[in-house]
Queue: 4 jobs
Job 1
Amino acid sequence: MISKQSLIVAKWEFLRFFKWKQQLISYLLMMAVMAAVALWSYFTDESREVYRIAVPAEFSISNTEQFQFQRPSIALSEQLAQLKAGESWHGVVTLSTATADKQTVVLHTLASKKWQQQLETELNSYFSQQYAAKLQLTPAQLAELQQPITLEFSYLDENFKGKDTPEKMIALGVLILLFIGLSTAFGQVLLSITGEKQQRVTEQLYAIVTPQQWMDGKVLGHSLSAMKAMITSALVMLLVFIVVSVVVRDNGVNLSWVNWGVLAWLVPFALLGVLLSACFMGAIAASIDDPNTSGKGAVMMITWLPMLFTYLVIDSPTGTAMTVLSWLPLTSFAAMPVKMAMVELPWWQPLLSLLLLLVAVWWMRRLAGRIFLRGMQMYGKEPSWGQIVGWALSNKAE
Amino acid sequence: MQLIVTAISKDYGDIAAVRQVSFQINSGDIFALLGPNGAGKSSIIRMLVGMTRPDSGSILVSHQHEHYDHVPRRLLGYLPEDRGLYPDKSIEKNLLYLAQLHGLSKQKALQEMAHWLEVFELTDRRQEDLKQLSKGNQQKVQLIAAVLHQPALVILDEPFSGLDPINQEKVVGFLKALKARGMTVILSAHQMAMVEKLADHMLLMAQGKAILAGTLADIQQQAGPQRQMVLSCAGPVTAEQLQQWLPELEIELLNSNRFALKLTATQSVSGTLKQLVNQLELTQVEMQTADLHQLYLMAMAQHQLREQA
């Protein structure tokens, strides 16, 4: 199915953009940045400190683990002077009466800090209790008043797994990974094919391998690069999750929310999707004579549309739009894994979708090979869109 | 390998790139395609390679009792006119890649590479990136890339371009080595002195047409017996005097006592000398035949005159 020459071209293309040292350095840098963020949040964690707050003498607020409330007998101006000098207090609370029936609490501090939000919660709670006492409410009545209502969603479609669930997060992750993969392929395919044309390697290669072998090798090599980018990005995402869970949140690693079945299906869909897109990009790049003057390069971005369309309908995974996208071979590589992450599907649906996608990849690679050959025979002239469509519809391979 | 090309023509839109060109190349020959830019040499080469097909006419390639309508890739070594390799890769990586695409094992490729790098004195630079080499050295790497897999036929489009005279001589030696290995070579070139040393057969083209073909001797004969007599005399002589004594001859005064006379088929050496001995004391007489460069220029001039007529 794929010739030895194509595999040699694929290996060459894959390794051409694979720089061990740079790759390693970028991973180390990424890990260093993550470690720095984790250490920074650990050492700047304000919740572990105790803050002293000066409050008016009539405040009966109780101390908490984080806040010690003190009632100094000195004048406010002196309290503020000590606050400014960094002595005695982290904050000074005063009361001002703006209107006859409304009091405003003022917190004097040196600058805005995260702990002040926690203090605001404590003060709110204190004043709620004060108002409740004034209204002669019992603590139970107050608790009932403060109890928010709970709105539960009940979905009648038994296959739907729910919104804003880990499944949706996985679906979004799938789209992000595909976007990363296709962006990698986009840059490499354009650079590789037009670069070879400009470096005058193409005609020499034509005398050695057929246009189809050459295009197959290119597409495979860059698709593998894209898959590598997706896998490493997924690993980095996982690493971030682990670091956040263990270091920042101080929890253990819990991966029970990961749907491994969907991830297993994602691999063939992603591979075929990237191959399909790389074939399309290869076809367009092969029709470009000079990337500096050609406007055709932007057309390669069409390959990002499947992810965009899928994102737009992600909240309706059982809707008509998602169903169409998940069957259409040009979009199914993005839509079907997302749909699978959010609803239960019978096994034959992803399988059939995958087979249709495979046929599309086969057709697209033949098209890319034809366009490369015909484009090369034009010697310095760029084919028109009409010519490209004509070649796409013709069946002549070489 | 034998090639028989019969009346091939190729148009690109309104431009007739090749018109009714025929020639034959025998196994082990060095065949030169000559002609000015735009004569149709590269168009013929691209048809032989199979990149394009002739609009009419036929190409018959015969090798070991097999016949093809263009040169099969596995039998072909090709140096295109528009050429280049991967500048950010080393000589060795570039050559290994192309050799492996040709089907060579790594070991065999390294062995062949070592031989040709030695020939071109590039052994010590094999790990250098191509972009670090001079244009001439890059050209040598391209030549090596075309022959590493020992093809039956090597097609070299302008192999001498961009090379200094010393390296041009090296390429002549390289081409002779290919011939000695039994390879058939087709080359296009403008460097007539190089072609004259190498080519068994040649085809001179202009505006897509073949205007002269054959061995150097055949071409000299087709162009007409062009002879030149260079004479030296004891005393000074002027162009006016010579024109007066020999009104029917084309004369070129080389210096005050040395001049050249171009003889046509009807003008004899002895008759010309008889006309001169009474006028001058001749000290040296030298006969020259037209070289390929002169024949080329003359043939092109004649072709232009015919086209204008």
Job 2
Amino acid sequence: MSATPAECAPSLESQSFAFESLVAVSEQTTNVWSQLQRLLFLQDYNTRVVLFGAAMLGGAAGVVGVFTLLRKRALMGDAISHATLPGITISFLAASIWGFDEKSLPLLLVGATVTGLLGVSTILLLRGLTKLKEDTSLSIVLSVFFGAGIALLGIIQQMPKGHAAGLESFILGKTASMVVSDAQLIAAASITCLAGCSLLFKELKLLCFDENFAGSRGYPIVKLDLILMASVVVISIVGLQAVGLIMVVALLVTPAASSRFWTDDLTKMTLISAGIGMFSGVIGAAVSALYPRLPSGAMIVLFCATCFMISMTLGVKRGLLVRSLRRLKINRSIGRQHFLRTMYEVMEQKQQLGLEQSITINDLLPARSWSKNRLATIVSRSAREEWITRIHQEVRFTKKGRFEAERLTREHRLWELFLIHHADIAPTRVDREADHIEHVLEPEIVAELELLLIEDQRELPQSPHGFDHWKQTDDSKNGNQKPNGNQKPSAEPPVSRARTGK
Amino acid sequence: MFSSSDKQQDDSDSAPLLVEDLTVAYHRKPVLWDVEFQIPKGSLVGIVGPNGAGKSTLLKAIMGLVPIATGSIKVFNTPYRKARAKVGYVPQKESVDWDFPVTALDVVMMGLYKQIGWCLPARRHHRTQALRAMEQVGIADLAHRQISQLSGGQQQRTFLARALVQNADLYLMDEPFAAVDASTEKAIVEILRGLKKEGKTAIVIHHDLQTVNSYFDHVILLNMRVVADGPVEEVFNQENLNKTYGGRLTLLEEVSEAMRRRERSL
Amino acid sequence: MTLDLNWNWMLDGWITAVAVVCAIACALLGNFLVLRRMSMLGDAITHAVLPGLAVAFLISDSRASLPMFIGAAIVGVLTAFFTEWIRRAGKVDEGASMGVVFTTLFAIGLVMIVQTIDQVDLDANCVLYGSIELTPLDTIDVAGWQIPRAFCTLFLVMLINLTFVIVFYKELKVTSFDPSLAGSIGFSPAIIHYALMVLVAITAVASFESVGSVLVVAMMVVPAATAYLLTHRLHIMICFSILAAIISAVAGHVSAIAIPASFGFRSTSTAGMMAVISGLLLFLAAMFAPRQGIAVKLWNQLALSWHILGDDIVALLYRVDEKQANQRTEKAWIREVLLCSPLSFTVVMTWLRIRGEIVIKTNELVLTDQGQHRAQNLVRSHRLWEQYLLDQVGIDPSRVHPQAEQMEHYTDKKMRQQLHQVTEKPSIDPHGSPIPEERSTK
């Protein structure tokens, strides 16, 4: 009979202990202000140590996280950090059996490193040798290793030398208890990782971007991968103390994912990610030190998450706001193009193509499936942008608008013809993202299409390339600086090719 | 089987690529059977064959990216490992994630990484070198764009520039003409001709049979084995094409299937 | 030290029962997590339900089951939803979006628990690694029987999961295999997806008390992965996963008592040992699964190489015989020609003699009639292949031999007939040797 209620008591006792460890150690002084002051001016030596450690950890995790994110192994850190638990408990047991100091941090971390690396290799082996996929291998290692750790922890709790005092804090983290030697360890590990990543910056970049090419140039892919995974192991392990093994993955993933919203450049991304990591580390640790009952690890993670949310909405490169603005702009430009072309075609039908001739809005309404309101919006916007002039219900082209309308109509007709007559090669040989038909099709094909158009008895608007100055004014006026890659300037200079349908 | 010391093949010493007796198997299912060919120096070589004929595998095997079952590959009469600096590789465009946060210039610079050396940062002259290569393919003005903002053709040119910047003597290109616009296609052809003029060699996987005659001077017809190889005008004919694209070698497939089954159930 | 189990049926019996139902409930859903490559989403949800629990506690002010389950289900769906939303709207890699979501939710839950520590009797450690040992103490009265509450809850959840899997078996199968096909024939993959997520969340909550949040992942993924390694059929996989779950649960509790006892400790965490045992089962499956197992593959390779060596020996003897060469076919000579290791040679020789294909006469190896039969068909295959490679594939005659040498070992009678037809019934091979007749059995 082993599991009597009385003997379950240790685990109950340890529960209350765990809460103590969760609650940030901060004297419950009523005067928060004086504490803030102490914190702000770093008067407290202990606070300085804690903030320094958290900052170093956040920075290093941010940098390593960028590479794991780009290597599409973001959750590897999760599995690795869980896999460290059995290592910690085994070294604790071993130390107490052979009479070493079982709470010596370096010893525990050596154990953590060993099982962490064992976890990585188990993942790679499972994925490589069996038909299990990556995600399953990750969760197997994560849960089985953690289970082994928990089982060993159950034994340690019965050991005579008190409960597994320090060990509990590895799971949920306890930044506030950081001492100088811990901070030194974190600093050393972080600097090693930072140095490694910056020295191998371009090699890691190549590895993450194009593994095959790296292989063809003779880079040792497996070794580079191992270096990257080893830094993940190191970060997870030093992060155990600060945020605990469950949440260290947040430090590896969240800053990196946030930074991607701000930039398209890997160097900047790395710096931003490191910055976010540091910031969250410092603020999280500070807030947890200031107020009672705010566990430091959780606070650091929450500040990371806040940064992520801000980045996701406001990020200047891929943030939601920027992207929806961009989409709006594209939709407007498409709407404008449709409008100008329709107006041209309607006027063409009425044979009223002169610059001084005008057309009523009601004439345009049946030409496309647009509602009256929508048409009115497009008309007033186009008038504002000086494509057309509007007098009451009548609209007429401006000079600039007329050229643009000609160009659009001509390209539209050529494009339609091309699709009809060259349907077989169209999908493979055509770069639809180019914005001018001359850049999409070979000149010979364009000439051939133009001939077809004439046979078709349709008038072909002249290629407006001679009027490139109009295009430029239009670009600058609309603020259409082509920031979004949807309108690509072509590689060729816009040479006027004298080709007319006449 | 035979050592390459046959003295009558004196020009094979400088041959950019000599493949002998090459067999490649994925999970014991052979992809390439007994491939054997030699590429003359300064030629533009097209590799043509149906889907699944092992064209990409052949290039990867040449570079040692897939394990080979038997055979030998000599690049400039040495194993690939030693001739790496002389070989430029243009992978398929689909093989990478174009959302990756790098600029076109960064990608082209990757071709110089070996030259720059481990752990060292790129210097100014490397940058100018890369820009020059981009100019050559006509995308110098896009150097600072993030790669997802390039069109398909421009992405392909970026890859080409990355290979060109290495200043290699032998280029291996995996479908550079796939899904590119006409002007890019033309630019690539121009570049290939320029390479030939400089006495360099290019091996290009190609899909469009219509253009083989005008683009290449040497062709390898591949369907798990080399059906024919030689100058375009000699071997690129209907009979060889039928052999390449037509009749599948059902018995070969059957025996490789049997090999796999046997392996499992023994 | 004697190995004394100290088994108490009232306590340990119930603990095992709770463990078993918990493991089955988890494993049932785990099959689909593994098949849909969503194992990590299971991990994410089990962590992320913490704030749901805390809120449910705060609102209902009790450990009542219903509010807990509702809270967990809501947060579970939110986790799946946010992960998907961040992945799509923010163009973030799926793993990363999952990492962001579940760590954030877990942190929120932790803060909530710590903040309300006076009002809520909820222990983060208990959520993390459970306390199955305490479950028999908290009983409720069911028809006059004192049954542990945890057992009732988990049994109910297990029934729900079982019903779900049985009723929606077809839908689960098709949506796991090919979501777009499922969409096109009218099953909504999204509904099945979120239903699965709700059940994962509910199962996680029900299991917290017994195995804790991380080990729920072990019970979900590991038995299912073990089953996945053992079979290709979905319904068999589900049965195997249940079996693996039961074994892990029972053996887990027994070893949690027995193993520490042999070192002089009292019992350790049953949940932890369950995870370890399930890991061991997975290891065994990975090594010894029929066909796919790593050890099995190695053995197959060895057996295949022996088989080929046997082929080579009889074929060599046949050829010596055919050429009427004046060569003494002694063991040493054969080993020299075939370049084989002494060990495999001995093994293969013994095997050939047992099968009666070879006898030893005056130190020479001689084919029996049966051996002759095997050899003749082999040589026939070899020479037909040479002809085929030359004729149909167009390989140079000087190079067909090594290819044929490889393929001859895999060629059956039917294939030989086809070869015979395709190569227009040759009587000699490219090197001029005669192609022997087919010898059929009996």
Job 3
Amino acid sequence: MTNANLSVEMDSSAAVNIFQDAVFIEELRTQMLKFARLQVRDNQLAEDAVQEAMFSAYQNIDRFARQAAFKTWVFSILKNKIIDLLRKEKRHTAASQLEEGPNLSGEALIEHLFEENGHWQKDERPKKWDQPEHGVENEHFWRIFDACLDALPAKYGRLFMMREFLEMDTPEICHNEDVSVSSLNVTLYRARLRLRECLEDHWFQKEKS
Amino acid sequence: MIKCKQATQMLSEKLDRTLSAKEKINLTMHTAICTPCRQFGKQMETIRELSKSYTKAKKPDEK
């Protein structure tokens, strides 16, 4: 047996070890499930997508040895599963059929944030966010981020996640969700406006006080 | 001259489409004199980066 063969075998067994690390896999599964549930609002479908992504990763495991790369890779498989699900789900709940939902959103939020003359209300002017990357390693920050995503009206959340999490392009989102380009752009604007407000109120400013 | 309301919408749409030359000029002129909108623009980019790192976020105990 040559050295080259040996090293290949060692790599693939290291990769299989990832699946034997029960703590790592369980933690990863929990994160994947949370990610899927945010987008597919059906527990069973979300669990199926995670299961399938995990299985698909297991079948192709020989390509992965490092845990960090593994995680990114499994999530990219999961993203594709979710995109497939959302495509199938299209007939039932396109974003165009969803209500904007309660709470301050859309025009009401815009009226709340801006004066009639189109300038920021004094209290609502965006404040400087200190070192946002400081939050990224922080579990508490991600809980707040989740809560802010959850609080978005269903239509905003769905389109926002398609764009930012699943990185789908404009023509595909518009086709899938039966919305026009300008309506998509306005909805994304409102979603970001709302998310920004929520993050500032519950994380970036709170930290200071 | 555009107002903050239009400027913020452009700062968001900038992430989704290419702005026209006229929009770019208007936006540049506006953000040059408007601190809140400048912050807003940075925060739009931060939100995009945060969304990207969402699936890569590490638990504090993870090395």
Job 4
Amino acid sequence: MADEDDIILSELNDEELVLQMHDDLYDGLKEEIEEGVNILLERGWAPYDVLTKALVAGMTIVGADFRDGILFVPEVLLAANAMKAGMAILKPLLAETGAPRMGKMVIGTVKGDIHDIGKNLVGMMMEGAGFEVLDLGINNSVEKYLEALEAEQPDILGMSALLTTTMPYMKVVIDTMKEKGMREDYIVLVGGAPLNEEFGKAIGADAYCRDAAVAVETAKTMVARKHNTL
Amino acid sequence: MTDTLPDDNTLTEAGLAPEARTGRVLLIACGALAHEVLAVKRAGGWDHLDLQCLPANLHLWPDRIPAAVEAAVAEARHTYQQVFILYADCGTGGLLQQKCRDLRVEMLEGPHCYSFFEGNDRFAEIAETEITAFYLTDFLVRQFDAFVWRPMGFDKHPELIQMMFGNYDKLVYQAQTDDPVLDAKAQAAAERLGLAYERRFTGYGDLAVEIERIAAR
């Protein structure tokens, strides 16, 4: 923003500050986000409200504009970086104040693939939405996924791949889960640039998620449905 | 058929239209392959092959490739007996293959140009041991700023390099030609990304094999 330097965040009222934080997230301004988070906390906001109303809502705008081709990967990464900085302040406070828990997710990039930008975004947005996220990182074998599922007992398994050559590995994981009789115990969400809905169905995933915002909405819906059937 | 090419920026943003439709077979290729396809064609003396290139920068939005190919094929069918698509999957997740099947045209095998330049079989063999490699071809070395540096925002935000390339450890320059200038440029690109450097001469790999097969029909 052209007049960025003229805005004193502490002089804005709550509503203005939240909107300004949405703008600052959009512009990837990490320090301004940290400052905004601290101001709202000082004003007595609950950490969960700061997270959802200022950060997640702002990041949702970023996500929508990325989907519509208005923003590109670098801008989204800068925004994510800013959000991450805000979340780093909030995370310990959220644990103390008992934010709502939506469910638990194990997420990782599949074997042979080292790309993690999308996965990291999904993990961050899921955390922002109240999910506990265990990130397995990159290049995960079927054994590593299964080990994490058994140890963590999450609601959701998320798998990511950027390469056409590595995305079939998701089917290897799902088929192994079926063989072991554990497929129905988990919601399996898949995502990554070369994937599509047809692929998700063909490999037996519960859903293909085209971006982080869709992943969050899909996860919320499916976890609620799963809990309703228990 | 033109045997002189526009500059790389034009191949990136606009592609190459077949200026004179004189051949029997049209090769619809990615703009990033224009130099290589013409080199193979010249070496074989195959004047019955015409070349049309789609903008190389479609690779920045792979989901747009199938529709662009479909439009080019529809136009070419008025003029050519045969059309061949010189694209591999190129990040379309099988959608280009499906589109080519629907259009009844053949395309290149393999996931991307790094694979067919290396040779698809050879690339598949080394893929597992080389997952932390970032590849550049001759074209991509020449167009490094247009394809990597600027679209990734590194010119304005160098802090993004670590976020995007932190999991890579080396840059492999798959050289189609012996050109010391490109070698130096590729090495400089590796340094800018903070990666180790390796040059590997591949020549035209399976691309040459496929063009020869098409030419022999």
